[in-house]
Design goal:
single chain, mainly alpha
């Protein structure tokens, strides 16, 4: 007889919490970094710098909202983003320092959030199956 999966609701909540925290923290970092780079290094006006920081802000909001409703799609989107960033680095010919910086500030957090969303989606499926099994047992 196959072992029944166990629903760990606390683990599910923690996976969701940390995935969303990675998305929000990473998004805030990249919004601030985009603004600072435009304003500090390129000497753009604050309005132009804020406009250029809208892309990471928009992407962060989209991923966060999508993660609230569909963790599987969010996990797949973040996995695709990780592959795209690595591809960008290969095509652009990043040197070692850039790889380390991007790995620590972009690739790592995106991949971690994607794995956490994937684990949360799996645990949600397990919890749904356990609930359906309990309802079927109660009806019988």
């Amino acid at each position: 007889m196959a072992k029944m999966p166990v629903c760990h609701e606390v683990g599910l909540g923690l996976e969701r919490l940390f995935a969303r925290a990675f998305v929000v923290a990473g998004g805030l970092f990249w919004v601030a970094a985009s603004f600072a780079a435009e304003y500090g290094f390129r000497a753009n006006t604050p309005l132009v710098s804020a406009r250029n920081a809208l892309l990471p802000l928009t992407l962060t909001v989209v991923v966060f909202v999508l993660g609230m409703y569909n963790e599987s799609i969010t996990a797949a989107l973040l996995a695709a983003a990780t592959v795209a960033i690595v591809g960008w680095g290969v095509v652009a010919g990043w040197e070692t320092g850039v790889w380390v910086l991007m790995g620590l500030t972009l690739i790592g957090p995106i991949a971690t959030a994607g794995v956490l969303y994937f684990l949360a989606a799996r645990m949600q499926m397990v919890c749904s199956l356990v609930e359906q099994g309990a309802a079927a047992d109660a009806a019988a």
